[in-house]
């Protein structure tokens, strides 16, 4: 039957598997804030469907069925891609859950059903570098509209200059500023920590912002006028407002992460791939080794320039 005495002994001493409703809160409390934010809604969906079932009950086929259900019932958005991302995230959330269950001894690694389900193939991102003239339009709108133009302009400059992620900006503290060497300490996803050079101008803006808005040494640096720390929602409101003034921002679903693509593409074109990889904070080893390539793809402006050269006709993007 392919069962060894060791397998029987292990099954005999293994504690009974908890239900999803019992175990999801345990895992949610154990993971990082970023992981909880990424998988929390999918764990809630699992509890909604399988709350009273035990971890060792669902089969790979049932996981595939749930992934298909999530895919077909995803909230419709203009940038939706047929629910593929939702199905991928559900499977990733279950893999995270079951990885903990294996570590806690509730199931064996060979019985992990989430590993027996393939993730949908990820489609190429539609994000790319923003042209200089378009970036200037974005900054102009941010600086001339809204209830806090100074904050929004600082956010855009911070992300454009450092290519940091939103999480890195929100985690920035006053104590993370080194004005003597013009460095800031960025703490981003995967618990990565790196010193990033910034311009003296940006350093002065960050210091002035922290002083004027009452940021403590170890508290969050970026704050509203009333002294409260900003959240991800500030970014959401910012891009909605910019999209109302610049229709192309709304149509293309431009977001803060596009600024990361913009900066890294410029760095790669002018200083090479190695510098761009370091600028991005990507590791030289493991899964990060080739990640930078996704940020430095040819832009539409470059493709249009090639077309213009080929046809000897001008193009609106060139």
What is the strand and helix layout of this fold?
Blueprint: H1 5-13, H2 20-30, H3 33-50, H4 60-72, H5 84-103, H6 132-144, H7 149-162, H8 166-170, E1 177-178, E2 183-188, E3 192-197, H9 200-212, H10 232-245, H11 247-252, H12 256-271, H13 273-280, H14 300-311
Antiparallel strand pairs: 1-2, 2-3
Describe this protein's structure:
54% of the residues lie in helices and 4% in strands. β1 (177-178) and β2 (183-188) form a beta hairpin. The chain is mainly alpha-helical. It contains 14 helices and three strands.
Short recap of the structure:
The chain is built from 14 helices and 3 strands. It is mainly α.
Give structural attributes.
318 residues; mainly alpha
Which term fits the overall shape?
A: globular
Give the strand content: under 5%
Order of helices and strands: HHHHHHHHEEEHHHHHH
Task: Evaluate the radius of gyration.
Answer: 23 Å
How many extended strands? 3
Number of helices: 14
- Please bin the fraction of helical residues: 40-55%
Sequence of strands across the biggest β-sheet: 1-2-3
Distance between the termini: 68 Å
Mean pLDDT: 87
Major pleated sheet: 3 strands, antiparallel
Extract low-pLDDT stretches: none
Structural class: mainly alpha
């Amino acid at each position: 039957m392919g069962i060894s005495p060791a397998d029987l002994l292990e099954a005999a001493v293994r504690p009974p598997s908890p239900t999803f409703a019992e175990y999801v809160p345990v895992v949610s409390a154990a993971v990082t804030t970023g992981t909880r934010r990424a998988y929390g809604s999918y764990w809630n969906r699992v509890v909604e469907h399988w709350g009273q079932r035990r971890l060792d009950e669902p089969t790979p086929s049932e996981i595939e069925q749930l992934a298909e259900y999530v895919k077909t019932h995803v909230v419709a958005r203009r940038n939706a891609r047929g629910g593929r991302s939702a199905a991928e995230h559900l499977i990733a959330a279950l893999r995270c859950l079951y990885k903990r269950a294996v570590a806690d001894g509730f199931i064996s690694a060979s019985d992990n059903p989430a590993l027996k389900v393939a993730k949908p193939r990820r489609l190429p991102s539609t994000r790319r570098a923003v042209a200089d003239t378009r970036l200037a339009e974005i900054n102009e709108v941010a600086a001339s509209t809204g209830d806090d133009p100074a904050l929004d302009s600082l956010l855009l400059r911070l992300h454009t200059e450092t290519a940091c992620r939103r999480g890195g900006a929100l985690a920035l503290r006053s104590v993370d500023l080194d004005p003597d060497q013009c460095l800031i300490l960025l703490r981003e996803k995967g618990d990565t920590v790196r010193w990033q050079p910034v311009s003296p101008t940006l350093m002065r803006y960050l210091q002035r912002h922290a002083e004027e808005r009452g940021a403590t040494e170890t508290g969050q640096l970026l704050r509203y006028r009333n002294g409260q720390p900003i959240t991800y929602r500030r970014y959401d409101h910012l891009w909605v407002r910019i999209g109302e003034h610049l229709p192309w921002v709304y149509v293309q679903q431009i977001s803060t992460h596009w600024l990361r693509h913009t900066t890294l593409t410029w760095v790669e074109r002018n200083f090479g791939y190695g510098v761009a990889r370091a600028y991005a904070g990507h590791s030289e080893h493991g899964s990060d080794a080739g990640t930078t390539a996704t940020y430095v793809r040819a832009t539409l402006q470059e493709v249009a320039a090639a077309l213009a050269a080929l046809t000897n006709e001008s193009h609106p993007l060139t």
